[in-house]
Amino acid sequence: MSDAAMIELRNVSRQFGDITAVDKLSLRIEKGEICVFIGTSGCGKSTTLRLLNKLIDCSSGEIWVDGEDVASLDSKLLRRRMGYAIQSTGLFPHWTVERNIGVVPRLLGWPADRIDARVRELLELLSLPYATFVHKFPSQLSGGQAQRVGVARALAADPDILLMDEPFGALDPITREALQNELLRIQSHIHKTIVFVTHDIDEALRLATRIVVMDKGRIVQHDTPENLLNNPVNSFVEDLLGQGERGLKRASLERVEDFMLPLGAAGLPSLSIEAGSSLRQALSLMLWQRADLLCVRDQAQVPLGILPISALLQSKSS
Amino acid sequence: MIAIIKYWRGPLFWLALLLLAVFCMGQFEFLFRQLTPDAAEVIYHRESFAQLLLNHLLVVAVAACLAIIIGVLAGVVVTRSWGRDFLPLVSQVASIGQTFPPVAVLALSVPLLGFGDLPTIFALMLYGLLPVLRNTLAGLQGVAGSTLEAARGIGMSPLQVLLQVELALASPVILAGIRTSVTITIATAAIGSTIGASTLGNPVIAGLVNGNTAYVLQGAVLIGLLAVCVDSTFERIQHGLALRYGG
Question: What sequence ranges are listed for the domain ABC transporter (chain A) (predicted)?
Fold first, then answer.
């Protein structure tokens, strides 16, 4: 067993009758990563996720989680160590938000006051005011709110690993983007190992530290979002990335501060953009304003540099 | 206290009427006399109404408890992964059984168990089983697959999934089945008098045999009031359950 891998799959296969859903998969997921599985329907990405918490057993191969072979672990104890969020939220309709979030701590036998404190903390973390939401039932929540509660429930017992099966798939684009940002913000505080399944390439590129592209139960490419965009291994990955939009997708991963030029003696351009914005946003602003030069500022509006349109065409400066 | 009485005022009203009928039937002799002016007696006296009511309740309670226990257990067993092979068989029996008239079940149990309370309880239990079983199946099968997957996925044991999620979510539907079952059983228990059980059906049967309409009416009124009383109690319980689950 190697040092840092939080999750390791070794030659894992799963058959359903004659169909091979997962075919000799080997993969390492490091601690603190957001590993996103992407592929078309039926490519085996959800099956792989369910193999990790033993909702489905492997036909062959081994899965190691945090230095332990899952085959040797009791499945319900293993699952209580892994947060689990799914597309349809799976919230218990007969329980209030409070009880839904507190379910895993209760299974683990936490005392009532500790559960209550944890529920408060999580509702705050997910921007749901405690007093408004704690006594609501799932049927009284909007889709986005229900999914936030689903994520809170997954985080409740502070697991090291979070499994998320298309958690934002059923939400409208605006809510989905808000929750993606929320997840990234939360992850910057909690540093979990997250395994995330999606069929939305933009979601994958936005969230992932590494992307696993799957097809017919096999891994086609396992790479960082940048490498996936720059060096897709075959036409399947190219198609997945959407041929015509690749430039824009890559631009949305690149940050303005990595491309800006030092401030010159000349006056500052009138149009400004924040240093943390993506190149895609910068390009969009240029196209919209018909401008070829932007001023780059930090969050406090202090000028840091300039961004001429030609700088977008350079390869990454740093 | 007042709020409790207010909540239960429906069942309490029917209970008061039932007790009035049981203990003060004699006061209405003049009314029943109009019905059968020629009869020697117009109020049924062979057994006291209170005794008949108690025995009726006993027969119903035993039969209904057995029906509920067996019906819910069978429903649970055939929806587990290891019992699922029996699901088609059991759900077919549950639907076909309901088309069988209760008198026929009663008649069939006599050769097996003789006369008296025992065959009546057996027949009532069989007949009352079906609505409980059918609703248990419907209730358990109505629990969303995603809810079950989430319950397993967060680490509940199979028993915890069953008790905390499946039965809890199915309970309104199961309770509706129990309500139907108990109400049917109360009405059907009266027919038990034909095979020697002592129930509120006794005045009805005696009245039919002797051509005494007053007897028939007294038995019928008591059975009707008992059924309405119990049914309205269940209605309140269901209402309370619905409120608790935010429905």
Answer: 7-241
Helices (H), B142-212: 145-153, 158-160, 168-189, 201-210
Query: For A42-59, what is each residue's pLDDT tens digit?
Result: 899 999 999 999 999 999
Cα B198 to its chain centre, rounded Å, is 17
Average pLDDT, rounded, for chain A = 90
B46-245: CATH class:
mainly alpha
Measure in Å the smallest separation between the Cα of B169 and chain A Cα atoms.
7
Q: What is the pLDDT of residues A59-68, one digit of tens each?
A: 999 999 998 9
Of the candidates A80, A90, A163, the beta carbon closest to that of B147 is on: A90
Query: Using CA atoms, how far apart are residues B44 and B172, in angstroms rounded to an integer?
Result: 40
Domain boundaries, chain B: 46-245
Distances (CA, A) of B223 to A210, B118, B201: 73, 20, 8
Q: Quick check: helix, strand or coil at residue B178?
A: helix
- Supply the pLDDT for residue A318: 45
Residue B144 contacts A, CB cutoff 8 Å: yes
Angstrom distance (rounded) from CA B159 to CA B165: 10
Q: Is B157 on the interface with A (CB under 8 A)?
A: yes
For A217-269, where are the alpha helices, taking DSSP H only? 225-230, 235-241, 246-253
Q: What is the rounded average pLDDT for all residues in chain B?
A: 90
Measured between beta carbons, the chain B residues lying within 8 angstroms of A91 are: 147, 150
Give alpha helix (H) positions in A69-190.
75-80, 97-101, 103-107, 112-125, 130-133, 143-155, 173-190
Q: What is the pLDDT of residues A228-274, one digit of tens each?
A: 988 999 999 998 888 778 888 888 888 888 888 888 777 788 888 98
Q: What's the pTM value of the predicted model, to 2 decimals?
A: 0.83
**ipTM of the complex in this document:** 0.81
Residue B246 confidence (pLDDT): 55
Chain A residues near residue B245 by CB distance under 8 angstroms: 93-94, 137
Which residues in chain B land under pLDDT 50? 247
User: How many whole angstroms separate alpha carbon A85 and alpha carbon B154?
Assistant: 9
Ordered by where they begin, the domains of chain A are: 7-249 (3.40.50.300), 254-313 (3.10.580.10)
Which residue in A has a C-alpha nearest to residue B169's C-alpha? Answer: A94
CB contact under 8 A, B152 and A55: yes
* Interchain proximity B154–A79, CB inside 8 Å: yes
